[in-house]
Fold:
Amino acid sequence: CEIEIERIYIIRELPLQPETTKKPKKKKQSHSSLYTPQHPSPQPPTDKELTARKIQAWWRGTLVRRVLLKAALSAWIIQCWWRKTLARRLEKRRIQALRWMAQETRACVTIQSWFRMLKIHHQYWRLRCATHTIQVSWRWYNCHTRGFFWGSYEIIGNQLRLHLDIFLGSQVCRILDCIALPIKN
Structure:
């Protein structure tokens, strides 16, 4: 299959401007416009030209679709990479937040346990002091209400004869003693 490509130039006539308007400044003509072939009259395109135009249009469309497909695939790859990166960052932040929360929870539990320990320790000492006070008071009351003393003494010469009976409930303690007294004449 051979394809002939010919250059086709379209020539347009410019409308004439009335002389009353200002003339625009002349622009320098480029070299390419000086050498453009000019056809005296436009002719309808031949079958070859139409076929060539169709093939060229198809090829340009294919190139554009190829470029667009490549751009779309590249964009899709970049989007996938970016989503993956964002997911990693989010996971790192989530794990960091979980660690921070666990550390805060452990700190709170430690502080609460210390506070409870001190509170219970304080209650224990208060109860111990109260128990000690009650025991001392009861022992003093028990000794003084249930027990009593009875005794007598005699002085015979230079000796003191002592007779004491101490009653503590059902127990009796007897003290019989003779103490020599130093008497000066």
Summary: Residues 20 and 26 are 17 Å apart (CA to CA). The two ends are 169 Å apart (CA to CA).
